Amino acid sequence: MAKIEDVAEKAGVSVTTVSRVLNDRGYISQKTRDKVNEAMRELRYQPNEMARSLFRRKSNTIGLIIPSVAHPFFGELAYHLEDCADRNGYKLLLCNSSRDVGKERKHIEMLKKNQVDGIVMCSSVLDVEHYLHLNLPIVSFDRTLGSDIPIIASDNRMGGALAARLLAEKGCRHPAYVYRGIGGPHHPAMLASDRVLGFEEAFREAGVASVRLELDAGGADDRRNDEELARFFALHPDTDAVFASSDVIAAEVMQACHRLGKRIPDELKLIGYDDVNVASYLTPRLTTIRQPIREMCERSVELIAMQIEGVAVAGVHSFPVALVERETT
């Protein structure tokens, strides 16, 4: 394996000059840069990225903390964020928190030790004190961490309103909002809470009252979710519409309805939120509220880069949503 000394000898320059080319420090003529780059190509020299990051105090790495990469929304988010980071010269270090505060804290310590340039936080853990004194660029997805930490979010309130208006137009008079709890009631730190506010407000304007169902926070036991939904429909037999806070929850509602013999959309109309790929694979295909995941990821990387350069970017960076009507309404 070629060493930096081999590159210097082949290019006819000093090791210091090769190091300056690698780290883009100091004045180096274009002719010398070309000689060094050509020598590296011929020798197939691979720079030591850790050594370079220590020298520059910059790792070109962004940490991403999500609840689980197995969740369709966070899986797609990780895919797009990695692609956007790569196109901007960054690598992505992925961490699954499993919604565990202790595990998340360990991930943060690991990211600090690896000298990441910034962190994109998408976990649902509500204990955020360990983010406030990191002295690192941070972007939060749909969650309030602190007044000086920028937030990326879709227009959740508008998403709820769009869902309600469509259901009202379809003649629904007994709507329900189904969501998954995160350590208790729909927590105000989660901007997704605004989805139900927009939903209920739009239905109130139509003279209709709606109800809510909070599913278990774990979300891993299909039978338990089925039982919760079965109890709910038994208590509210007139329910003719459900707005689910995610496409995954909408899929759970769809499965429960199938087992209960409730026909979608004839007896119950269903709308999800996110428009992940699975929404168009379900049968019937799911009507949903699309949030622009790729554009939100691009903005996240941009905000990290701006903070690295010392630019203040606090506040909520909101993205418009769109109704995608398919076969469940």
TrEMBL record:
Origin superkingdom: Bacteria
Alphabetized GO MF terms: DNA binding
SUPFAM superfamilies linked: lambda repressor-like DNA-binding domains, Periplasmic binding protein-like I
Domain HTH cro/C1-type, residue spans: 5-32
Keywords: DNA-binding, Repressor, Transcription, Transcription regulation
Domain HTH lacI-type residues, every copy: 2-56
Pfam families: LacI (PF00356), Peripla_BP_3 (PF13377)
Stored SMART domains: HTH_LACI (SM00354)
Name the UniProt record assigns to this protein: LacI family DNA-binding transcriptional regulator
